[in-house]
Amino acid sequence: MARRKRLEDDELLAVARERFVAEGFAASTRGIAQVAGVAEAVLFQRFKTKAELFFAAMLPPPPNLHEILVSRPDSEEPSRRMEDIAIGVLAYFREIAPVLLPLVSHPEFNYESFVARYPESPLNQLVEGLQAWLKRLEARGDVVEGASPAVALALVGTMASLAIFERIGVHGGETPEDMVRQVAAVIWRGAALAPG
């Protein structure tokens, strides 16, 4: 029984991802095809260029937004929830760092173009999910009006940076949880409405 093309594409992209993570963009399409058990021409029938194959293969896995953003009760203290969200976002960036680093290092990578090409991009989902949560807090009066995009950017950017720092050995390769919570608390203090 023949397999669906989508499944075959997923398998092909998994092989390409493995090679690109190990070798960067320099990985040969011939080598990828060989490991995948197809002719190199098959790659270029499905992906017009090596760059197109690279970007399709290096799309990070999706975050578990339910676990990161939704699983905690809305009644929980927002500052504590921000800390827990930061822990979840950092865990996600730790998971995707092996894919993310070669992706953003590619000379043709541009975030806006990437999101336009892949609107369901996991990174975009994460930022939009955070903004939606923060907008609910804005509506409740817990966050400065209009601050949601900046706060989401600060949190995502900081957690992504921490994951990259860990990859190069900062904090012995793992940032202590209490430090992550302190960073999230600093971001929260900038977002929360000042008393009075």
Layout of strands and helices, then pairs:
Blueprint: H1 5-23, H2 29-36, H3 40-46, H4 50-57, H5 65-70, H6 78-105, H7 111-117, H8 122-140, H9 148-167, H10 177-191
Helix pairs in contact: 1-2, 1-4, 2-3, 6-9, 6-10, 8-9, 9-10
Compact overview of the structure:
The protein is an all-alpha fold.
Overview of the molecule:
By secondary structure, this protein is mostly helical. The protein has helices at 5-23, 29-36, 40-46, 50-57, 65-70, 78-105, 111-117, 122-140, 148-167, 177-191. Helix 1 (5-23) crosses helix 2 (29-36) and helix 9 (148-167) runs antiparallel to helix 10 (177-191). It is elongated.
User: Average pLDDT value?
Assistant: 87
Shape: elongated
What is the CA-atom radius of gyration, in angstroms? 20 Å
Give the domain tally.
2
What characterizes the major β-sheet?
none
Provide the helix percentage: 55-70%
Strands, count: 0
Separation, N- and C-terminal Cα atoms: 69 Å
Write the CATH architecture name of the largest domain.
Answer: Orthogonal Bundle
Low-confidence stretches: 1-7
How large is the count of helical segments? 10
Category from helices, strands and their pairing = mainly alpha
Order of helices and strands: HHHHHHHHHH
**Could you please say which CATH topology of the largest domain applies here?**
Tetracycline Repressor, domain 2
Strand residue content = under 5%
Q: Which CATH first-tier class of the largest domain would you pick?
A: Mainly Alpha
